[in-house]
Here is the input.
Amino acid sequence: MKYQRPKGTTDIIPGESEKWQSVEERARKLFNKYRYNEIRTPIFESFEVFSRTSGETSDIVTKEMYDFFDKGERHITLRPEGTAGVVRAYVENKLYGPEIQKPFKTFYMGPMFRYERPQAGRLREFHQIGVEAFGVDNPALDVEVMSMAVELLRSFGLKNLKLAINTLGDVESRTNYRNALVAYLEPFESQLSADSKERLHKNPLRVLDSKDLNDQKIVADAPDILDYLTPDAQEHFDKVKMLLDTLEIPYEIDSNMVRGLDYYNHTIFEIMSDSKAFGGKWTTVCAGGRYNGLVEQLGGPETPGIGFGLGVERLLLVLDAEGIKLNNDNGLDVYVVGIGDKTLSGTMKLVHAIRKAGLSAERDYLERKPKGQFKNASRLNAKYTLTVGEEELAAGKANLKEMSSGQEVAVSLSEIQTNFAKVIQNFNSTKGE
Here is the structure.
């Protein structure tokens, strides 16, 4: 029987995993600048954590979630997105306490799961990097989160990006707009797709997000949510735009954007790329928004929140299509060449000492001849070779060679054992003399 990975998943093998590490490392450094600290939540949660927060009519809940009953008859879901689990952890661990710094800033990285048709940049197991910030209902935090997302994508060398923003307003704004939208859509009810018919009276804003071409024609002339904002909601959105202008971050307003999850309100945004990875069409790589009220839904106190999620697979596709190389240098510092049967212990001690000094080291395990070992050192892009034979062991010496220049010098085995970093430093300082 031939075993294969499940459909919609992928193996991240050496040679590729270094790219992932580079993305994750860059994100961690940036988040640290903005004072976001990591949180790690379970890959599976109670079904209600997502059904209650994501919306009963959302595609995620109705079509895409991997959910099952475990042996204890508990309804379990593999997480389809990161925010709801972080909010659950925020509430359960009382991270809203008076002793906690506000805003509480955190980030996460890890796999998510959705049952959907696999395609480029859209897998059944995919990976997200995301941030969440709780406790502050201030437009400045909205802009900080968007600025951080843009800065992260730009740090990889991406240039042709588009930031699209919208607002879903406060509760009153949304209620007024909902009524106007239902009144507009009801005469078209018979023409709507099956999904949109179901959503018309449950969550009509989701009709705006329909992928059905006929639905899109109908909603093209629908009322604009920006015409139904309360003064407070309008002021919040105006400040967001003003601060984006202040930071000279270009943006476009897309008043039909609603996002695919029901918990959003006020500011929402998407960062898109028209990379040839997606046929030159604008495709979302990173998205998020404000979700005041979500903490209360999961049993916490009234707490505003905002965040974003970035799809790692999509980002890597864009970087590859744009010819952007990540810093995934996995070069070897030192290859230890042993000559003779009696050098086994000596080469092991040398490799161990080099690694203790903080450098990477490798040796031969296939009993190759010296020529084969040097060839392997070249194949592994070793910066140096350290050669020791039976005579060198007896003399307490080894030959250190820089592969790029071919320069070679005899060094003391005792010095290698005690401080190999200094041996390299001395070698570099005397080169060419």
